[in-house]
Amino acid sequence: MGSCCMPSRPTDSSGSPQPRMHSSGRDLSDTLIALDGGVFRMGSADRDVNPGDGEGPVRQVEVAPFRIGRAQVTNREFEAFVADTGYVTEAERFGWSFVFAKFLTSALRRGAQRPESAPWWCRVDGATWRAPEGPGSDVTDRPDHPVVHVDHADALAYCAWAGLRLPTEAEWEYAARGGLDQARYPWGDELLPDGEYRCNIWHGRFPTHNTGEDGYVGTCPVTAFPPNGFGLYGTSGNVWEWCADWWGTEHPSSDRPLRNPSGPATGRARVMRGGSYLCHDSYCNRYRVAARTSNDPDSSSGNLGFRCAADV
Known about the structure:
The chain is α+β, with helices and mostly antiparallel strands. It has a single domain, classed as paralog of FGE (formylglycine-generating enzyme) (Alpha-Beta Complex), CATH 3.90.1580.10. It has five helices and 14 strands. It has a four-stranded mixed beta sheet, covered by helices on one side. A hairpin with a 3-residue loop joins strand 7 (204-205) and strand 8. The chain is globular.
């Protein structure tokens, strides 16, 4: 599947079995925020809704109390997981992942395979969470940036190790809204309130020129911008976040609030939320809090990560 936001990896079941994940026994409670849950209006009737995304109709949804990560999982946190378990990500097993072309050296960019629908992405051998731009890059100076080049299985493996889980899409949107009703962004309806940058997205002309006027052209530290009303960081921009749900665009109708919806029972793609540093309103304004998209669960790229959740 995939989209303009992120390419998809052809399905391939090759590779050796992964080690089974067991809870690390670490206390990760300080990385989570406890939310009371309740009823909120999910979805959007926004004029900028992307056709086929299934944002609407706006519907009453109720979520039970839960806990969710203050921020996206960082390189430092993921490194601790790998050091403890010896886990090998799917990008490492496949031997490649997708990198935004502008981040590559001319040598790596030359002759790289590019998806026809999104030629600003390049297949790069050796691109992994440890080497986000391929051979010669590393995350030494990015410990507090979100881990990227992780697919859905990688996110689930980390969650299992941490004794956590991925949020449902409904939980994610409830938390991302920060208590605001039907606002476009986690902080309100204006993208730049009082001229202040609140998220890491593309500025300039996509995909040829990013001014970086928000301070970043790639990923940024997960707490680089102010949190929303619930204390969550980065629910608009920076990197896409995997959710637990299979993708679907039909939402059950009910006279009563839908309680703890979890998406279709099966599917081919998983939900992603939040947008990324590559989102721009000229082609992809999915950094709005109701915006949604999906990708094949074994896909990875330099703008996709995750945050964790847990029951109360």
